[in-house]
Amino acid sequence: MMRPRYHFAAAANWLSDPNGLVHDAGEWHMAYQYNPQGEDWGHMAWGHAVSRDLVQWEELPPALVEEDGTMIFSGSSVFDHKNSAGFGINAMVAIYTGARSEPPHQFQCLAASTDNGRTWAKYAGNPVLDRRMADFRDPNVFWHAVSQQWIMVVVLSAENRAVIYGSLDLKTWEELSEIPTLAAPGHLWECPLLIELPVEGSADRRWLFKVDVLSGAPGSGALYVTGIFDGRAFKADGPWHVADMGSDFYAAIAWHEPRDAQGRPCWIGWMGNHAYQAKLPRQGWRGAMSLPRRMALRRDGDCLRLVQAVEPAVEALFGSAAPQTLTLVEKPLVPASRMVPDAVAKSWTIEIGAPCGRHLMISRDGGSVRVQRKDPFTPDLDMVREAPLPAGADLTIWLDHGSIELLGDFGRMALTMQHRLDDAEWTVRADRPLAVQLSKLA
Ligand code: FRU
């Protein structure tokens, strides 16, 4: 299959969760779950890439690899300006889950780099946090200025629980509280994120807690709830919402810093799904990241809802939009393109097809948008996903080799799907005359 044109994928091998997102000296670091030995999940390590603009990525050698039967599972990195952990001023410190299989045991570990993330040394005192459990993973750590401490949120996956810890030195962790479960749908919690976000159009800020649910949750499994965090406990506003209604946006975490002018952090997710990822055909590499998206909250009656906006540097990759009218006639489509259908048009279906017979059907009616993915060669991919999209709301369709991301309703609706339209020639047609703005990679 052809490689994505404007999404990050490793040159070879299995890639999944983003890990260790940290920014330093003008560089965005992105580590990720990576198998240096092949295209299947296993021997998990932290692959590593850097970017100066969140668009062009340079893949570096893996940052952390399996050793003595301990794999490197998901986690985060921080920039330790004050040398609180003793690894050196401005050390980059990774907080990851060490995972052993026989017997199953997961515990939290540190590694540090003092050369801008080029080389890493595991801490000799690992693990720094161990509950002697089989499923205790995915620490997300950030500096909480108000309480002057490091905060970690981490999950007891099999029990659908998330726990908050505090630390002054990243090495000694005190359990502070537990996030309320609030009857969350689905089972097996992974990859938590606790982050403060700006509320659009105001000076207000509110916290968001996100957790991924491996099975049984609506959408991709990324659930979130807003609330307040006082340095000890998170108090949820409730109820749960779904961050992305597609089937392939998982394990997203954020660069906690830096923020943009509106105070928005950036996050990124793995465009994959453990339910079928292992069944996708081999092609030398497997898995890609979503587009980076800026995060904020929007007031909606009594609720606050997450809104996501594709990083402006990605928008800038695209040339000016050519207005087109799509009809039943098939037109050739450049595989890496961005499509904005007329928001006034009430109901339509756009079909994107490849000569091999794979299709994506995107349909809009007065209240929702749905994507039907049809794949005669990989039946596990056959499915329909739907998201609310009010009449008149905007919609942008980001199309690339391997993926389609729909963002609409000014960022409130997101729907991400992988696909395998892997021919160079694609066609697009609509079931009625439909005005669209179509732009190609410049
Ligand atoms: C989520 C996940 C994490 C774990 C990692 C292992 O995709 O299952 O919970 O740390 O992948 O690769």
Short description:
The chain has about 450 residues and is mainly β.
Layout of helices and strands:
Layout: E1 13-24, E2 27-35, E3 45-51, E4 57-64, E5 71-80, E6 91-100, E7 105-113, E8 121-122, E9 129-133, E10 137-144, E11 149-156, E12 161-167, E13 174-179, E14 187-198, E15 205-215, E16 222-229, E17 234-236, E18 241-242, E19 250-255, E20 266-270, E21 285-286, E22 293-300, E23 303-310, H1 312-315, E24 322-326, E25 331-333, E26 337-341, E27 348-353, E28 359-364, E29 368-374, E30 383-388, E31 395-400, E32 403-408, E33 413-418, E34 426-430, E35 434-440
Parallel strand pairs: 1-21
Antiparallel strand pairs: 1-2, 2-3, 3-4, 5-6, 6-7, 7-8, 7-9, 10-11, 11-12, 12-13, 14-15, 15-16, 16-17, 16-18, 19-20, 20-22, 22-23, 24-35, 25-34, 26-31, 26-35, 27-28, 27-34, 28-29, 29-30, 31-32, 32-33
Beta-D-fructofuranose binds next to strand 1, strand 5, strand 10 and strand 14.
